[in-house]
Amino acid sequence: MPRPALLPRLPLLPLLLGLAACLPAAAQQARLPDIGSSAGGVLSPAKQAEYGAMTLAQLRNAGYVLDDPLLSGWLDDVGQRLAAASDRPQQRFTFFLLRDRQINAFATLGGYVGVNAGLVLAAQREDEVAGVLAHEIAHVTQQHVLRAVEKAQRDSIPILLATLGAIVAAQQAGGPSGANASAAAMMGGLGLLQQRQIDYTRANEAEADRVGIRTLAAAGFDPEAMADFFQTLQGVVRMNQGDERTAVPGYLQTHPLTLDRISEARERADRLQRQAPLQISAVSTNPLLPAGLVVQAQAPRGRGDTGDFAWARERLRVLSANTPAQAIREYQALQARAPLDDAQRYGLAVARMQAGQYEAALPELRALLARHPDNLWLAIGLGTAESHTGHAADADRRFEALLARMPTHRALALSYAQLLAERNQPAAGARAVAVLRPLLATSAGDVLFQQAYARANEVAGDPVRAGEAWAEAAYLSGRPEQALMQLNNLKKRPDLDFYARSRIDARIAAITPEVLDLRRQGVRDPDAANP
């Protein structure tokens, strides 16, 4: 994995809790959360969200997270639809992709759910990805993750401390082997934790399957999809027999799979499909209705998938490859076996653009958009290729027409703003700022937005707004000390007005306690000077 050497800089407590919470197992019996459970007293909801966000920032800092507006938008669409149909629709969820091509997914504190690129690439349809997400959502709503933290506080923190110590020792040793030793130490510690908790997983896995399948059906996805993906994983195991290193996907190491589990998943799905109409029961959260009132509603049957899975999978194939050249070779290998379908042709065009071969991608994208005129993935891809091949006016007309219909579409706005900022002209920068402004109120925690907004303001000639956004992007990328340094330097500018100074002071006050806590733990960012 890239850049594992950054891990020792990360906060100790969030790292421990984040690693522990990534383990979906807990030493508890299968039951719904009850009033007498101690899990709710481990961490407040606000603290859970805080540590979940810090875990994501740490993963991003280490280079694990795959940030792409189209892919993250697709995953979030699927995940939020499932979350709204879950047992706790009021729970906030954040879904993100990891570059790793190992088949895996996990849920951590605060409703943060990570999905490896390999899992999406292994799936045959969107419903299978939804089945995995529904399972991970159930781990959160049934408080399995929180109970895992409760158990980790008793049993696992000594192992995690030893793991962190091994990582730090490997880093201090220096040399080219330091990064590999760090990664090996972390993986070894996680493996030991997983082995210690494997005996406790079956009850929680059964509950997550049961609740997840119900959520899957309630959201309008195929309830058979969870069992279908289990069978896909079995096929992966059979294909890898004889290769001990890849014989068991990571997902099965933390989510043990048996024939009984597959058959039970199919039986539950069959029962749900036989119910006509399917009734979903939930306790009302409306404060105007009596407490404890159980309401029933028909599930939105037949809603189907988003229609974007094939395009998302091929874009993910490209962006998770080690290099664009490797992605191009993958498509050449696929083409040698059978003609590429339209989604695969799109993937090959994206790979060529990633390699800087915009002229080669342009005609392919034009032909594909003619076949799929309403496809936003293709339209954004074609606009990008046009902008890099001397057809900037055509690209602008295309993006402006799309924005007139969808002014708050995140992937569209970010893609266009990036192209405008690349021209390095004040007028283009000002237009990029205007394109991003409708997203400003809802993008405080969006690292891609902060980076795009910073660059746009920089080009437009507003160094104060640019500095604030660059600092926020650093913070969201797991570099709070660097963010604090940037804000303190920004505060020294003589041209700050009252409002800008107030914003900067407020952000410094919010970040400073976190940085001081890191320093007390002996964790420093070597790239940040003393503020």
Structure explained in plain terms:
With 531 residues, the protein is mainly alpha-helical. The protein has 3 domains: 4-281, no CATH class; 307-405, Serine Threonine Protein Phosphatase 5, Tetratricopeptide repeat; 417-531. It is 63% helix and 5% strand. It is built from 23 helices and 6 strands. The protein has helices at residues 12-21, 45-61, 69-84, 117-122, 126-141, 144-173, 177-197, 201-218, 225-239, 250-254, 259-274, 309-319, 324-337, 342-354, 358-371, 376-387, 392-405, 410-422, 426-436, 447-460, 463-476, 480-491, 498-520; strands at 65-66, 94-98, 105-108, 112-116, 279-283, 294-298. The strands form 2 sheets. It has a 4-stranded mixed β-sheet with strand order 1-2-4-3, sandwiched between helices. Helix 9 runs antiparallel to helix 11, helix 14 runs antiparallel to helix 15 (358-371) and helix 16 (376-387) packs parallel to helix 18. The two termini are 31 Å apart. The model is unreliable at 1-38, 156-179, 189-200, 241-246, 276-280 and 295-302 (pLDDT under 50).
The number of distinct structural domains comes to 3
Helix content: 55-70%
Low-pLDDT windows of residues: 1-38, 156-179, 189-200, 241-246, 276-280, 295-302
Integer-rounded radius of gyration: 24 Å
Which secondary-structure class do the elements indicate? mainly alpha
Along the chain, the helix and strand elements come as: HHEHEEEHHHHHHHHEEHHHHHHHHHHHH
| Portion in strands | under 5%
The coarse silhouette is: globular
Strand order of the largest sheet: 1-2-4-3
Structure annotation, total helices: 23
Mean pLDDT: 80
The counted number of beta strands is 6
First and last CA, distance: 31 Å
